[in-house]
Amino acid sequence: MREHSLTIPAPERWGEGIVSVPQGKEIDLDVRLESVHEGILVSGTVDTEYEGECGRCLRDIAAPVEVEFQELFEYPGEETADFEVQDDHVDLETLVRDATVLALPFQPVCQPDCPGLDPVTGERLTEPAGATQAPVDPRWAALQNLTDHGSAHDAARDTEES
After folding, report:
1. Which of 125, 107, 115, 123 is nearest to 54 (CA)?
2. What predicted TM-score, i.e. pTM, was given to this entire model?
3. Can you name the residues that pair with 73 across neighbouring β-strands?
4. Which of 31, 35, 36, 162 makes the best surface tag, with the fewest CB within 10 Å?
């Protein structure tokens, strides 16, 4: 059994969605290699950081990702295996890339309760709203006047009674 800890740069951009691990981003690997009868059992963890955009408000985000993996690299034989030992070596790039990409979030968000964008103005709803009010539907405008006058009339009546 052998254990290795490596820090390597990502050889290329990993991921095709709205988040990915950019090329050159440091990837920390802790790998354990064990000799078994069928080949070499590789298990370990990957620690890195993904970058991209929030799926709701389009704000830039970056977050850590940690992935555990385990795979058997079989000795060459009659049957073709997904992962094989080649000249007493194992190539971990495909294994680590696949495990990392599958761990990336499909719909990443900047915060769990991110409200997204306003459908009318396109402004982020997470930012403080200005003094402008949302436009009132003209069908309800008459009722708005009644509630404004009604609450003022009720307050005046309450002060007269006391």
Report:
1. 107
2. 0.68
3. 40
4. 162
